[in-house]
Design brief:
Layout (H helix, E strand, L loop, with lengths): L1 H11 L3 E4 L4 E9 L4 E3 L2 E3 L2 E8 L3 H9 L5 H37 L2 H5 L5 H27 L1 H18 L6 H15 L1
Antiparallel strand pairs: 1-2, 2-5, 3-4
Helix pairs in contact: 5-6, 5-7, 6-7
């Protein structure tokens, strides 16, 4: 047993070096930890490796020198993106907000009488929107990362528009609840 421990100690005390394309790792003099632990008669020596890792590369540092975050070109690109996307996204957000809050206007305009809703159906229709919204949040975020925002936002806008148009075909309380659920699902 002592011979095995001595062999292990002598083999670990040698200096070793490992080189890869990206970084160099030098492992120097791994020595036994001075402190021995005595717990219920069992002794243990712990080794503490000393590792030096050189990850700084000249090429990586040169790349940072080329990028100037305050350059005129970046300011122009940012302005161009803002000028094209912000109005469109603001319009879509306005339509989404109007669609969510428009059910209150529909109730004032006799939605309950037209669909022959009894007492709790309107409240369920209001609440089920948020159930669909909560259920759709995580899958929508995962799909956004998988397919990218350009494709995912287009899919969601088409689905949302389709569900909004289908709201016009609602003729009963059950249809209103189903349509509101899918509206929440597509808006998540």
């Amino acid at each position: 047993m002592e011979a095995e421990a001595h062999e292990f100690k002598s083999s670990t005390e040698k200096q070793r070096s490992h080189s890869t394309d990206e970084q160099t790792i030098d492992i120097q003099d791994i020595t036994p930890y001075e402190k021995q632990l005595d717990f219920l008669g069992a002794e243990a020596n712990y080794l503490q490796p000393q590792i030096t890792i050189d990850t700084e590369s000249e090429h990586e540092m040169e790349a940072f020198d080329l990028f100037d975050p305050n350059s005129e070109e970046i300011r122009k690109v940012r302005w161009k993106v803002d000028r094209r996307l912000v109005p469109l996204l603001s319009l879509l957000y306005l339509c989404s907000f109007l669609d969510r809050s428009n059910i209150g206007n529909a109730k004032v305009a006799n939605l309950g009488e037209d669909l022959k809703l009894h007492s709790g159906v309107y409240n369920v229709a209001l609440s089920v929107f948020f159930v669909g919204y909560i259920i759709g949040e995580v899958p929508a975020s995962m799909a956004l990362k998988k397919v990218g925002p350009r494709i995912w936002v287009s899919i969601v806008m088409i689905c949302w528009g389709t569900v909004s148009v289908c709201m016009a075909a609602v003729r009963s309380g059950t249809g209103l609840i189903v349509a509101r659920f899918f509206l929440g699902l597509t808006e998540s």
